[in-house]
Amino acid sequence: MINRRWFIGSAAAGILLPASLARAAVKTNPFTLGVASGSPRSDSVILWTRLAVDPLQGGAMPAGDVVVGFRVWEDAERRKLLREGTVIAPEADAHSVHLKLEGLRPGREYWYAFTLGDFESPLGRTRTTSPDAENVRLALASCQSWQSGFYAAYTDIAAWAPDCVIHVGDYIYEGGIGTIGSRTVAKTGETLSFRTVRLHNSAEIVTLWDYRNRYALYKSDRALQAAHAAAPWIVAMDDHEVDNNWAGDVPQDPRAQTALEFSVRKLAAFKAWYEHMPVERPPLIDDISASLAMNDVFRFGSAQVHLLDTRQYRSDQVCGEGFPGQAPCKQYGNANRTLLGAVQEQWLKRELRASSARYNVLASQIWLSPWRFDAGGDAPEVNMDAWDGYPAARERLTETLADGIANPVIMSGDWHCAAAMTLHERPFDPSSRPVAHEFAGTSISSDCGWMREMEDSKTSNPHAHYLNARKRGYCRFEVGTKQWVTTYRVVADPYVADSPLSNDVEMRLADL
Ligand SMILES: [Fe+2]
Fold first, then answer.
1. How far apart are CA 308 and CA 324, in angstroms?
2. CATH number for the 1-128 domain, one of 3.30.390.30, 2.60.40.380, 2.30.38.10, 3.60.130.10?
């Protein structure tokens, strides 16, 4: 469980301090970043915390690994103790804990806490999965720019306490420090106004130190901590956990960073992501190259959820930087271009074909359904960073889904814009056979500066049944054995930390 290949700049890494020594060395609360659980299975779950007495300064923990106590209960009142023990928080992993709790019962709630000396972490609630669960509640979250708004959506998720939170990326943003206050964006017929409500803690993040402190900043938020403490999460990073619109080994701006610099940066970003997420598998490090095993499959009652990695193995974007839409060019239709990579593509096909679930979910960072910004014709202007920019890869996936897979449902994020859409066999031809339903969540807090372009192009996209780019929030999914209900929850005011939320729309899914 402990990744011992990692010893970045730390001669002391790997030295195990007796618990008494560790206790003596920590004089202030080390549980400043809360607790989390994730990767829920029918018999296991990962429990997470990270010790950090000074979270924005690398944690400032004493040198050496630290022994942390843990307890697990079967009730929220902590009367029925199920298990207790110790686990190591390795210095090499920024004193994070990834404890795999095994031998659990399916479809059950558990409560847990960590201790170090006299300090105790907040109490976390988690839940194992069950293929037999008759009603499952899932939340979909993404895009939580710290500077652009508060996390009222997470307070609402915590209160709902779903079976699992599915996070499809942009957990952090890599950019530098903004300016508090309002800014306006002039569009035809309307001036949009956005606010920066709080500031990042450093210039654009590049090093392991930077990424750790950025995660610590985001994780200092009480609402985000509450949502982690309320339910297990499954997480897949998108672009901003590393660099805007990166693809495989290519950064957003290859002229500003060499291939070597980007490789080292990606390694730092992957390592810090692991250190702060309730996931089982650390990055695989080969010299200065890092990779993450992120794609995975989970079973929640009637839904089999395939968590995709649409960033790490993709071919680079083509045709230019037109935003939000870009006209296609010669390379656009190249059949060799991939989004999932050949290995993941085959894995997904195998999992889908073997699934016995009534609903087969793809949790994709980016939209799978098309969105054209032009009025019509054979050369649609699209977002080249989404599946729209990879038509051959989408065609292969659509063919797989159309070939007898029961009720494909897509969950996606990235675009800061809520939309419910139908994916058709020929994506830009709504008269062709419907293959999947897609629920794109809006953002937890990130702006949608292109809301007008989305609204203005809605009539060119008749496969979209609902669109709301003006509100922040998240999606709730209630999955029964016979029905699926999606509810779009929206934040009244993203610039107010304790803003209320309400239902924007509720949809029932018809079988495909
Ligand atoms: Fe985003």
1. 23
2. 2.60.40.380
Structure confidence at residue 159 (pLDDT): 98
Mean pLDDT of 47-62: 98
119 vs 19: which has the higher pLDDT: 119
Per-residue pLDDT, 18: 53
Residue 130 has pLDDT above 60, yes or no: yes
**Helix, strand, coil share of the chain (percent; to 5):** 20, 30, 50
The SS3 assignment for 100 reads strand
Q: What is d(CA 177, CA 82) in angstroms, rounded to the nearest whole number?
A: 45
Distance 360 CA to ligand 1 centre (A): 25
Of the candidates 344, 79, 122, 107, the residue with the CA atom closest to the CA atom of residue 228: 122
* Ligand 1 center–CA 119 separation, angstroms: 36
Q: Where are the domains of the chain?
A: 1-128, 129-508
Going from the Cα of 414 to the center of ligand 1, the distance in angstroms, rounded, reads: 5
Give the mean pLDDT of 299-316.
97
C-alpha–C-alpha distance, residues 400 and 340, integer Å: 14
Distance 75 CA to ligand 1 centre (A): 37
Mean pLDDT of 482-507: 98
pLDDT digits (tens, 9 = 90+) for 335-380: 999 999 999 999 999 999 999 999 999 999 999 999 999 999 889 9
Q: Quick one: pLDDT at residue 247?
A: 87
CATH of domain 129-508: 3.60.21.70
Question: How remote is the CA of residue 6 from the centroid of ligand 1, in Å?
Answer: 30
Q: What DSSP element (H or E) covers 265? A: helix 259-276
Pairing of strands 96-101, 45-50: antiparallel
Q: Which residues lie closer than 8 Å to 443 by C-beta, 6 or more apart?
A: 142, 143, 144, 145, 170, 413, 416, 472
The span from the CA of 75 to the CA of 110, in Å, is 7
